[in-house]
Amino acid sequence: MNQKIIDIFGPRLAGTKSALDTADYLYDSVNEYADEARKEEFYIHQGAFLGWIKILVTCYILAVVFLWVDLAYVSFLLLTLSVVILVLQFFLYMPLLDKLYPKKKGKNVIGIVEPKKEVKQQIIVSGHHDSARIFNFFIKQPKLYNARTTGSIALVIMLLLVSLLSMIIPALKDFQIYINIFFTITVLWVGQMWFFASKNGTPGAGDNLIASMIAIHIGKHFKQKEVLNHTRVIVLSFDAEEEGLRGARAYVKKHEEQLKEMPTYVLNADCLYDEKELFFLTSDLNNFVKFDDDMVDELLDVAEALGIFTFKQPIAFLTGGTDGAEFAKVGIKATTLIGMPWSNSNRNTSYHTPNDTLENVNFNVVSNTLEIFIAYINFKDKKVGATGEGN
Q: Which residue of 135, 138, 186, 239 is surrounded by the most CB atoms within 10 Å?
């Protein structure tokens, strides 16, 4: 079904008809077996999540200009503004710029499978069906990705500090011409960030349609093959993950009360390409949100019992976030399973490129994820049945 969706709908940028139609298609699949299935609409501001990039570039260029005309305080103010936007919009995923971008509809898909006895806990299995914008830096000179992105941010911070020092250390005036020339040259380096992301989307097989397919399959498994005793399984396929986790945020905001009514666990998956690189995140959202250590350790034990190698690690700073973060932010136990190296200097070559196709998703990573998640859900169901508690 994964390939069929890609063939029919193509790239699925959030806020486009293809993403909405894909949600309808997934809903039909879930509705065939779930005790309850529904679609939930919400709104995003398309393009806002990456809007900080062009603001950063614009402020940097203007800051250099004002440095030349001896208005370092203006340079400092511009760069401070750009850094504040960077931190709030990208580091913390706050909707700072959203109102400046066009409002578009998004659509989440939900399926619920009830147990045969009293519900004592619920486990969410989730992925996202929207696909990413192509990141040009992963196509052209990908080995320079880290230097081009992190390096550009470093230059912005460096110029901010130099602007501040220029105002408070008069002796720097003797070197001002050399400072100005240096930062004028670096405009070329920071300026390339303007072209960081394409307007076109990826096929989005590994990031992250395959995870939505896994969630749907698991829901079907516990409805038709192995009915649980006390565990409700909730299947979620989010929209707009690539727009700053807006689909997961909309779901959590709407259902926070129900999520906290009983013990709830979130098994999110993202970027499943290679079974040799399977690991569970211990943190999310540029390492500003922490996941539940006990839950992660339980999953590692389950994987080890299955003979599947996994490990755990925090998310790398400046590498973004996953839908699991939105649950952890409100105190819900969650983690995300990743299937590729996760750093700015080392990621799967299909990630955020036109090569994110099904043939580049290893079958074993899919089967291993299914095994781990199904075994974990069974483990938690037996545990709650024996103790009467979900924790």
A: 239
